[in-house]
Every structure is written in C-alpha cells, then in structure tokens.
Fold this sequence. Notes:
Elements: E1 7-10, E2 20-22, E3 26-29, E4 31-34, E5 44-48, E6 52-55, E7 59-62, E8 71-76, E9 80-83, E10 88-91, E11 98-103, E12 107-110, E13 113-115, E14 123-128, E15 132-135, E16 141-143, E17 148-151, E18 155-158, H1 163-171, E19 175-177
Parallel strand pairs: 1-4, 2-5, 3-6, 4-7, 5-8, 6-9, 7-10, 8-11, 9-12, 10-13, 11-14, 12-15, 13-16, 14-17, 15-18, 17-19
Amino acid sequence: GETKYDIVYINSTPSSSQGCFIEDGNNIAYSIYISRNGESNEPAVLTMNGGYLEVKGWEMKLGYDDANASRGIFNLNDGTVNISGTGGVCIGYGLESQAEININAGIFRTQKLYVSFTGSNACGRLNLNGGMFCVGLGNYFFVNQPGRIDIYQGMLVINGNVELYVQNLVQANLITAYNGTGTINVTYNEV
C-alpha cells in the first residue's frame, strides 16, 4: 500500500550488481535516490520492466551521494513513470557523479528536469532509445555541461514555448541525435 513518506534508496552491492527491478503493479514512493559511491566500479541500478511508478512527495535523484564519483542508472523498458513531487528529476547531482536514465520504451513524466546539476561537475545523461520523456514545466528544464540528452528512437516533449532555448542546447551539443551523427527537429505547437 501507499504511505506518504516512503523514501527509496537504491545502492547495489558487488554481489548484486544488476540492481533492483520493478516488474509490474502500482509502486508509489515519496522520493527515490539511485546512487553508489566511488568504492566500486559498479553503479546502483533500478530497472523497470512494466507497471506504474510514481514519486509523489519530492524527487528522483541519480548519482546523489556527496561522496566523489557516485554512480546511478535508471532503465525504463516498459511501463509508466510519473514524478509528481515538487523536486523533479536530477540526473547527476553529487560531486563528479555519473548518472544516466535510459528510456527504451514506456512513458516517463516529470515537471522538472536537471541534467548534470550546476556546479557539481556531475555528468548526467538521458538516452531516449524509444518511448517518451515529458517535462511539464519548460522553465525547469536544464542541461548543463558535461551532461547530454541523446535521442535515438524516442521522443522528448517539453511543455511551454522553449523552442529557442532548446535550439541553443542542440547547437551546444547538449541535445543530440544518434550520438551526434543525426539531426534534431525542434518544433513548438500551441495546444
């Protein structure tokens, strides 16, 4: 059942380097932190193969630990993720952390997105291999060096007229297609 203040920490150990899995069902948490500090080369991993996941209270952070070089990965292979908490999603937060979200299928929604949190020298990456990633508030959509969003078969949808801002990110190679070899089409549609 749902409880208001469940906080989930994913920190894989060397004996379970494949991490944790969500296969189905309705899964609700207050916050989710996916991070493993620099004591091992293995990242913390959460993989979702189906079902529904909602963060209702605050945020989802990857590469969160304050320890140097923390690592975290979230894989969405199917299902729906809804980050309705006020903190949104941060891919790469801790000092020199490395983090990524891989969308292979399904839908991921958040109001706010931060890729490579400012001032932390974190390297965050959003890989859209399929499915859809939606950002509800265009004025809370940030991609900072050395982070990147790379689009293969997936779709990035940002609410609000941020076309010029997104074009600037494309020109700066912070949003790329096919690892920099493809073309990005940026359009704004009033609804």
